[in-house]
Amino acid sequence: MQDKYFNNFQTDVSEIVLPKKFTFPFSYEPHSLTKIAAKELQQLLSKKSLEKEISGKMYGVLVVKNKNNELGFLASFSGQDYEGEEPANFVPPIFNRLNKEGFFKKGEEELRQINSRIENIEKDTEFITLREKLKDQSKKADSEIKNRQLAKHKSKAKRKEQREEAMISLSPAAYDHLNEKLSKESRKEDFNYKKFTKDWKRKIATIQKELSVYESKIQKLKKDRKQKSILLQKKIFDQYQFLNIKTEKKGLETIFEPIGNPPSGAGDCALPKLLQYAFQNNYEPISMGEFWWGKAPKSELRKEGRFYPACSGKCKPILGHMLEGLNLEDDPLKQYTAKDKVIKTLYEDDFIAVIVKPAGLLSIPSKEIKDSVLLRMQKKYPKATGPLLAHRLDKMTSGIMLISKDLESHKYLQKQFMDKSISKRYYAILAGELKSNSGEVNLPLTVDEDNRPMQKVSFEDGRKAKTKWEVIDCKNDRTLVKFTPITGRTHQLRVHSAHPEGLNAPIVGDTLYGEKDERLMLHAQFIEFYHPKTEEKLSFEVDPDFTL
């Protein structure tokens, strides 16, 4: 029987050479078979009405070979909810949470009922009345007790004054008589004050006792809800048992144990679902690709039809197990070498150096790559103290960097960065033409937790990010611009260029927010700062090695 999830290619692929290794999903150029599979799926997706769609989805294709040595592909999407009828035969989820007869929906209904019972108690008029009464009476008690205290302190002060005057004006016998009288007044006032506070405490306690009947019910329900929620979550996690080509199983909790709790939606992304189905049905994985289709979310940068790497937050730990045993393409990061990258020195004295970092060289070492500006500066200046790098540039960004040779110089330069007295200027080539010749982008940025190191726009959680820009030249649907960053957020210029609410024109060669090219066309062209010892204003500029 033909597997409905196995899609035969509509295009003739008989002459296409198969890849020798399976796609490395976190950094890849899609194989021609992957592109054809994606195109055929996109043709189906384009027939679906997306007018009411709030946001698009990440889709995935997995080119496979069946037992009969026939080529085809499997299709999937990230998540479980799909608006309307599915336009293609997407492989089933690893665990179907949407099954109305399944334990998840039943457990969800139990939690809903508990929430409803809590809500009903909290809306009970008697409960609301008691809560308001307690609030009002507590406020009234505090006020009246405070007034009594003030009156008590005034009476005490007045009695003290009377005693002092009596010692001067009265005879000893008359003074003793007055003192006894004042002492009785004091004891009576203390007694009345204590009785007054006890009466208020008794009133408040009576209300609290009535209120506690309701609150104890709420607390019991919340405790029950928490226990049921934990058990339900545990049961859900147990359903996610991921296979690899060696048919080895590993559960979600086990996979994420070294990191922490599994994030929401882990296991529901496109690629884990595709690989799971392939391994369950003895299909041989050949190549893969994930692409975005539909409306882009406001915060993340997604372009319809563009391929993207698998997410790092949810998928990387899972795929670490699922890809075991596959002949995988090499991780580009581990194959990377910067031995041919030469650092140029523009200026140097006993305190600082001004260098030009080439594109492709890291500023600081990563887990995979040690060669970097920092490592080379440490070797060049073995007697230097302090952090050496006054700031950083992205790996694929070229341009001017400041080096401090001692801790005091580093602090002085850092202060200038903090108070924005250092001026910087970047040149970049953008993919597309801009609507005006100059302007300003104000889009707050924060890290995209599921897709590190990518950043995203967030008006709720993002940090202020501001960039001034000016067009220098435009040719062949590309624009050379000058950027003046007012703030210095991670990937600021790259996101401000690519985002639809920014310039809506990604920097050429930006593999994270745009499309691959010979290099990232971004260059730190100019810097102006005060020397940490002489306090002389210094400026340096170096033009990029790219042009329109």
Automatic annotation (TrEMBL):
Q: Where is the composition biased (Basic and acidic residues)?
A: 138-147
Q: Give the matching InterPro entries.
A: PsdUridine_synth_cat_dom_sf, PsdUridine_synth_RluA-like_CS, PsdUridine_synth_RsuA/RluA, RluA_PseudoU_synthase
A GO biological-process term: enzyme-directed rRNA pseudouridine synthesis
| CDD domains per record | PseudoU_synth_RluA_like
The entry lists its GO molecular-function terms as: catalytic activity, acting on RNA; pseudouridine synthase activity; RNA binding
Q: Show the ranges annotated as biased composition (Basic residues).
A: 149-160
Domain of life, per UniProt, equals Bacteria
Give one Pfam family: PseudoU_synth_2
Outline the segment boundaries, as ranges, of region: Disordered: 138-164
- Domain (Pseudouridine synthase RsuA/RluA-like): give its ranges: 353-499
- Alphabetical list of PANTHER family matching this protein: MITOCHONDRIAL RNA PSEUDOURIDINE SYNTHASE, RIBOSOMAL LARGE SUBUNIT PSEUDOURIDINE SYNTHASE A
- Under what name is this protein listed? Pseudouridine synthase
